[in-house]
Amino acid sequence: KQEVTQIPAALSVPEGENLVLNCSFTDSAIYNLQWFRQDPGKGLTSLLLIQSSQREQTSGRLNASLDKSSGRSTLYIAASQPGDSATYLCAADNYGQNFVFGPGTRLSVLP
Amino acid sequence: GAVVSQHPSRVICKSGTSVKIECRSLDFQATTMFWYRQFPKQSLMLMATSNEGSKATYEQGVEKDKFLINHASLTLSTLTVTSAHPEDSSFYICSALQGSNTEAFFGQGTRLTVV
Questions:
Q1: What DSSP assignment string belongs to B58-84?
Q2: Who's near B108: CB < 8 A, 6+ residues apart?
């Protein structure tokens, strides 16, 4: 059974810092891994999707990497801004087992 | 943590029929529920936001007459795919917000196959 964990649970940083969010999964037989952002009271916003055959994806200031063998993915946010404050979720899409979400990392970027 | 139950986990239906997917919050009241779908090799995308006792808010490009959402109670929201076609085959997942809490809890998802 797939289990997904995220570290840290919460993070508070001053504006401008580069930061890394970590995601770990127990079953490496994933179809893909996704990173999402959730703002208070809103639905998920998809940030990056990494297929199982890929090692990283980049979008603007965001870079996500995937290491299936070690069961890890990281989300790197460069030059953080107050508007980046949100909860960040990773989710492993297993073959035939649907989605398993991590508990999320609450990020606060202070002006 | 709170539990959201989604049913069924898998369904195969014939083209032209309707399919109902249920999303229940088992141990909390959910004033807001979200419905998402994911096509193969694509990202999970928000379809609609469902608020208890009011009409759902659909995202651009989602047909509200095809994807009927009912959120009649604080613990149940349903998504009905009407007159399903093979192109509706997808993975559908719901999530529920616990009051004003920012944390959302996800159902297990439903894999719909229309043949």
A1: EPTT--TTTEEEEEEETTEEEEEE-S-
A2: A98, A99, B5, B6, B9, B93
Angstroms from B74 CA to nearest CA on chain A: 16
Percent of chain B with pLDDT over 70: 93
**Ranges in chain A, pLDDT < 70:** 95-98
Residue B38: predicted pLDDT: 82
B49 min Cα distance to partner chain A (Å): 7
Chain B hits for A49, CB-CB cut-off 8 Å, are: 42-43
Residue B113 parent element (H or E): strand B110-114
What would the two tokens of residue A38 be?
A: 């959730």
CB A102 within 8 A of CB A38: no
Residues of A in Cβ contact (< 8 Å) with B1: 103
Angle value at C-alpha B66, between B65 and B70, nearest 5 degrees: 70
- Give residue-wise pLDDT tens across range B21-49: 999 999 888 888 999 998 776 777 889 99
Question: Measured on CA atoms in the order B2, B5, B9, B14, is the torsion positive or negative?
Answer: negative
For residue B41, the tally of other CB atoms under 10 A from its CB is 9
